[in-house]
Amino acid sequence: MKAVRVLSVVVAIALAAGVSVYTIDHPGRGSTFASSAAPSLDILSATEATKYVPTAPAAQRYALDATQSKFIAHALAGGLLWFKGHDHLVAVREFTGEAQWNSAALSASSLQINAKTASMVETSSVFTDQQKQIINKELREIVLLPEQYPDIIFKSTNVTGTGTSANQYDLKIAGDLTLHGVTRRIAIPTKVTITGNEMHAVGEFSINRSDFGVKATSAFHGLVRVRDKVKFNFDIVGHPP
Questions:
Q1: pLDDT at residue number 226
Q2: CATH architecture of the domain covering 60-239
Q3: Separation of alpha carbons 233 and 114, rounded Å
């Protein structure tokens, strides 16, 4: 209030001296200047002034783009005989999803992913094309059972984190993962970069396949014989829908 009274006195003296007074407003603050030009007083109306009040950025939506993304399940070897020592790199070829992003309130952000189990295929170069065909057949018929469980779904329930630079953020995305008809709570450490109209998210997380009732094969070939822990790596790109 004291600053307002002082400003009022300055304006009154300037007007009495025949000096015009005008205001120049910047976002979030205003400044008053005096001029020796013809007397006039330009005062912003309340409506005009609100145009300069900073507002929190609106939440942004990003549709996940599987064609520009990578989503890999890394299963450590647990096989026998000639297969022993080879890890699996199973890629998720088809998935959709959406991220709601709010840099001003990270807790208001969210993520949802829907991956198609039928699209998961072996990509490791250590296997021949014939071996990959056998592995993919076992993945479909014994391990993933896409006809019975067509989708792997993740829905976030809580997002926390901090900004590390102007456009980068280290996040912890907690949520529910549904796989093989079983839902478990997991947490996914994620590094997010926002550049123009693109969202880029990189991270990894691990699950125990036994927690979701997913088994390794026991078929004649038994190529999908892996340890219990499976690690997922992702490098996902999103664009405004």
A1: 80
A2: Beta Barrel (2.40)
A3: 16
